[in-house]
Structures are given as C-alpha cells and as structure tokens.
Specification:
The C terminus is likely disordered. The protein is globular, with a radius of gyration of 21 Å. Helix 1 runs antiparallel to helix 9, helix 3 crosses helix 6 and helix 3 packs across helix 7. The longest helix has about 60 residues. The protein has one domain. It contains nine helices and no strands. The protein is mainly α and about 250 residues long.
C-alpha cells in the first residue's frame, strides 16, 4: 500500500503539533512548579495562620490530606478556565488557537518571571475578582474546622485552593491559555506541587525548611527557571517570525 504525499504531510503535521503541545505543557508545568516554590515566603505570611489552624491536631495525615485537597482545588481552577476557553472557541477555533498557544503561554510566563524577579502586580484586577469569590466560599471553611476527619481535611484543602493569592492567579492564566482542560489541571497541579514544601513545613512546624524556603536564593533560582522556560517557549515563534522576514528582505 502506497502512502500519498498528502498523507505523509498530514502525519508529519500531526506529530509536529503533538510534540509542540507536549513540550509547551512540560515547560509550563516546570515553570509553574518553580513559581510555587519561589512563593514560599509569601505563603508563610499569607497562609501561616490557616495552616496552623487546620493542622492543630498535629497529625501528619491531616497535613497530607489538606495539601492534596489544595492541589485538587488548584486543578479545578485550571480545568474550569481552560475548559471554558476550549468550549468558547469550538473545534475550529481551538485548532487555530493551538498555533498561538505556545506564544501566549511563553508571554504569560515571561510576565510571571518579571513579577517574581523585579516585582509588579499586573493581575490586581483578577485578584480582586478572586477576593469576591472567596467571600462566598469562606463561610464554608468555618464549617470544616476544626478538622476531625479525612473528608473534612480534603474538603478544607480544596476550598483553601481558591484563596485569593496573587501568585495563584498569576499562574492561572498560563494554565487557561493551554486551551485544554487536562493541561490546565496539570499546570495548576504542578504549581501546587511547588508550594508543598512550604505548606508542609507550616503544617509540621519545621523551622529549618522554613528558613531555607524563605532564602532569596530560592526565589532568584526559581524566577530564573521560570524565565528560561518562558524564553524556551518564545524562541521558536520569534525565530519563525524573524526568519521569513529576513528571507523576504534578502530577496529584495
């Protein structure tokens, strides 16, 4: 059976597209995890009281389940945003969007990296929206405290994931721009995994881990990792834009 040139081109196009999607997802997950790790100092200040209150029984199982629930909450944020985008674009629009997804994810990660390294609150409006949403969810957390069972720990952690946090809602648009519900969930879960050392340290009151995570070197290293991930995603689209332009100028 002979393979037509069209079939070969279509197969190559599909393989290239899938490879690009997976590399974009891997880079976004790595950067999201690095952003979560870099936010440890912020987490200690904002969530320390919540962690201490939730883990007041001092059980390692409570800390584990609460954090698993929190990762689940982040995953839901990623799933909803990316899923709504995919539904809004439809099949045709999503196919076209896939070509710009790498550029969009890289650009958003670049903004996150700049925010981590030099400061900046470029998502203040979204954070205010998250604050209004949290006002509706917060009363539910009171019904789950003190944590007395496994399901309470998981449910409390899942609600905690929606706490209005600038870092969470800086990474969320990166997950949403993936245009795929599963990818959005994985990117936000990776962010949550990056925060696990700090949040576990708060729950278990391990001072040595706290001091290490609050080190400026950790923030700098994580910020540079996010920056490198952003640049690696942006390199291809930028070169694709520059090379045809250079070739066109050379012809004239």
């Amino acid at each position: 059976m002979l393979t037509t040139p069209t079939a070969v081109i279509t197969r190559q196009t599909i393989i290239t597209s899938m490879t690009e999607q997976y590399t974009t997802l891997a880079a976004a997950m790595l950067a999201a995890a690095a952003a979560g790790l870099a936010g440890s100092g912020h987490c200690f200040g904002m969530c320390g009281g919540i962690a201490a209150l939730a883990g007041q029984r001092g059980r390692h199982s409570d800390v584990l389940l609460i954090n698993l629930g929190r990762l689940g909450g982040y995953a839901v944020i990623g799933t909803l945003g990316a899923g709504l985008l995919a539904a809004g674009l439809g099949v045709t629009g999503l196919t076209r969007f896939a070509g710009t997804s790498r550029l969009l994810v890289g650009s958003l990660l670049l903004l996150v990296a700049i925010s981590m390294l030099v400061g900046g609150h470029w998502l203040a409006g979204l954070n205010r929206f998250a604050g209004q949403l949290w006002q509706r969810l917060q009363p539910l957390t009171g019904k789950l405290l003190p944590v007395q069972s496994a399901w309470q720990a998981l449910a409390f952690g899942m609600l905690w994931g929606w706490l209005p946090c600038g870092l969470v809602y800086a990474v969320a648009p990166v997950a949403w721009s993936s245009g795929n519900a599963a990818s959005g969930a994985l990117i936000m879960a990776a962010f949550g995994a990056g925060t696990l050392p700090s949040m576990s340290a708060m729950g278990l009151a391990t001072g040595r881990i706290r001091r290490w995570l609050k080190s400026p070197r950790v923030k700098l290293f994580s910020g540079l990792l996010v920056l490198l991930s952003a640049l690696s995603l942006l390199y291809g689209p930028i070169m694709h834009w520059l090379l045809p332009a250079a070739g066109h100028q050379h012809m004239h």
